[in-house]
Amino acid sequence: MSLPIDSSAGAPTPPATLTYPAPLSPVDREAYETMHRDAVWFPSAIRWCAFRGPKAASALNGLVTNDVEALPVGQGQNALALTAKGRLVADMLVARTESDEFLLAMLPDALTAWMALVRKYVNPRLATITDESAERSTWMVFGPQAARAVAELGGGAHTVEDLANVMVSGLGAWPVWKHDHWNIGPATVRLIRTPMLHALPGFLIIADARDAALVGDLVARSGRPIANRPVFNVARIEGGRPMLGVDMDESTIPQEANLDALNAISFTKGCYTGQEVVARVHFRGHVNRHLRGLEAASPIPQGARLLDADGRDVGDVRSTAESPRRGAIALAMVRREVVPGATLFAQTPEGPLTTRLVALPFPA
């Protein structure tokens, strides 16, 4: 194709000291296996902001990569905020709660940059942004029985077993990113069906801060484990889900991190900040590196440089983990000409570590 987009010059500098992934503890391994056969809970560190106003939809549409203006109330999607040069500012979940109101979720560092971007470009008479992180508490649940885990938290008549079974069936039929109010005990929360861990079904529960202790207590007494961040990290890597600040940063073009494949970009909507670069890559060019998976016989250190069989530097290792099901795995940013199945050598103090490049997500 013509007009290749070379972003390799802006690649992050690897850390001076390589970081090896710690194996999961016995408790974490059990939670990981429970997540794959039943469901587990995770407390979430994501932050929330509200975008409101008479022109909220059109104003937000001009700042993010997905078509939020066409989003129905009660539905959500992935979206990105970019610089004018098409580099990442924030990776977010957008949920339309009213015709003129959206809730947005992202990591804390991204929220700061995103709010600064909005205040720079959006006239407050058209729409305003409010940090609502302190007003909301978030839990996540993932696994084949995620819908049952939500239903069994109870709420009025929802504690009756036959009604719980009806709810499980109904929740299982929710399309991805559907959200609505839901009762948990006496609390009303917002429930979102999320594909954040690829093939593992999941939900986000967003409670008001005043109900955080009540919901947390019900989760703790649910009979299903509360898992730690390392368990989520393994599942995230297995699902090929990049994390801002680890796998991608302000030097990353969305297609490099496979964010187009995660349905975070609309190629049919109107203009938005950074669109020219993203559209040029999609329609007439290509990026020169992509996020890929790595497998190895021993732990792969984060930050290691990757060499091909001819000794050429072709990329670097990003997120790493030891998966109970797949062994040593990692996400790596690798030159596009290196195809899945290729053997690459991670440079470690102990010598080259042989790895195999795989397409994402990792096979189930």
Walk me through what this model shows.
Mean pLDDT is 91; it is low at 1-15 and 156-160. The protein has a domain at 136-221. It is globular, with a radius of gyration of 21 Å. With 364 residues, it is an alpha+beta fold. It contains eight helices and 16 strands.
How would you summarize the topology of this molecule?
Blueprint: H1 26-37, E1 40-43, E2 47-52, H2 56-61, E3 76-82, E4 88-98, E5 101-106, H3 108-121, E6 128-131, E7 136-142, H4 146-151, H5 161-172, E8 179-184, E9 187-194, E10 202-208, H6 212-220, H7 229-238, H8 275-284, E11 289-296, E12 305-307, E13 313-323, E14 327-335, E15 343-348, E16 351-358
Antiparallel strand pairs: 1-7, 2-5, 2-6, 3-4, 4-5, 7-10, 8-9, 9-10, 11-14, 11-16, 12-13, 12-15, 13-14, 15-16
Q: Note the gap between the termini.
A: 33 Å
Shape descriptor reads globular
Number of strands: 16
Give start-end ranges of low-pLDDT stretches. Answer: 1-15, 156-160
Note the beta-strand portion.
Answer: 25-35%
**Rg computed from alpha carbons, rounded to a whole number of angstroms:** 21 Å
Q: Treating each run of at least 4 consecutive H or I residues as one helix, how many helices?
A: 8
The chain-level structural class is alpha+beta
Q: What's the pLDDT, averaged over the residues? A: 91
Trace the largest sheet across and list its strands. 11-14-13-12-15-16
Order of helices and strands: HEEHEEEHEEHHEEEHHHEEEEEE
Quick one: biggest sheet? 6 strands, antiparallel, barrel
Specify the helix fraction band.
Answer: 10-25%
